[in-house]
Design a protein that fits this description.
alpha/beta, 33% helix, eight-stranded antiparallel β-sheet, single chain
């Protein structure tokens, strides 16, 4: 009798477990599809794609990304018509669906994260005519791009998270009081005076992350000229080049640093600096992106700069990788 009761109990437990597992699987989204930095634009017909609507999408998303030595587009725009939007295309990571509905009184904007897959951002814009559609897109395009950028970072983070370098992460946590998802391959090349240099060296390319901390006294410390001056000073002192006396510096003549305020950076308010770096005393250079954040716990100013060295080759997606690592920073 006891054996029968035990057997019945096991059956009940297994049934509950299976039920929970099925529900979990039902809630799990398929992995999104699409090439790196690719946008899928869905129109009702080829005329919309070849006309003003398609041109507006291409002009905005295929603009050249600032700071790259070779011309590279922010995104590549792919196209299909609405009648080809099958289950596979509905899982595209960055999706814009356009519809012209002549009897529509007011435009309709529908957007959803992880609609048919994850990570995904899908937006549908309906309007009565092309002119109205273009106005709506112009008002929404910056937010759309921000969501697409977020998806690209999420995609890279899916690869980085399982291969995190725990030793490097612990070093940063102890030194600066924050965590950052640094994957295997990076190592601590230098760590002194609250300046840490992480490197990842491959046969034909180099990745780097430079972290430095300074006292935060006032908003003047976030002044653009001061941020450039401090970064140059740190690089000259701690980031040597391959030849004796050579060192990293920011290009301030041909590709000047550009700044963007990021109010929703994961670690809080941040100032982004983007451009190209050079090497004094050597013919080396490449793109970089840096974020300066105030540590709310210690009133310290922390800058994390990511850079790429990959001469004469595309670097947009590699820069997105180091950008993704920096965006994982949390106090």
């Amino acid at each position: 009798m006891k054996k029968l009761q035990l057997f019945a109990l096991i059956i009940v437990v297994l049934t509950i477990f299976a039920s929970c597992t099925n529900k979990k699987n039902e809630n799990r989204k398929d992995r999104s599809v699409g090439g790196t930095s690719e946008v899928l634009f869905v129109t009702q017909n080829d005329e919309q794609w070849n006309g003003q609507m398609g041109q507006a999408i291409r002009d905005f998303f295929e603009e050249e990304q600032y700071g790259l030595p070779q011309p590279e587009k922010n995104f590549r725009v792919a196209h299909i018509n609405l009648n080809a939007l099958n289950d596979m295309f509905k899982k595209h990571r960055n999706l814009i669906i356009a519809e012209i509905v002549p009897d529509l009184t007011n435009p309709i904007i529908e957007s959803q994260e992880d609609w048919q897959s994850a990570p995904q951002y899908a937006i549908r814009i309906k309007a009565k005519d092309t002119e109205t559609w273009l106005k709506v897109f112009d008002n929404q395009k910056d937010e759309i791009k921000n969501n697409f950028d977020k998806n690209e970072r999420a995609r890279f983070m899916d690869f980085f998270r399982p291969m995190i370098n725990a030793k490097v992460v612990e070093t940063l946590k102890n030194m600066y009081g924050f965590t950052m998802t640094v994957p295997e391959g990076y190592y601590v090349a230098s760590n002194k005076d609250y300046c840490t240099w992480l490197r990842k060296e491959e046969v034909d390319k180099s990745f780097g992350l430079i972290i430095y901390q300074l006292p935060y006294k006032s908003t003047n410390d976030l002044n653009e000229e001061r941020l450039i001056k401090v970064c140059d000073s740190v690089c000259q002192k701690y980031i040597p080049g391959p030849a004796d006396g050579s060192y990293m510096t920011l290009d301030k003549e041909f590709v000047k640093p550009v700044f963007t305020v990021i109010p929703d950076f994961p670690a809080g308010y941040a100032v982004e600096m983007r451009g190209q770096w050079n090497t004094v005393g050597e013919f080396m250079g490449g793109p970089y992106v840096a974020y300066t954040i105030i540590n709310p716990e210690s009133t310290k100013l922390i800058t994390v700069m990511g850079y790429i060295y990959y001469p004469n080759k595309p670097k947009r997606d590699l820069l997105r990788q180091v950008e993704t690592i920096i965006w994982s920073l949390k106090f």
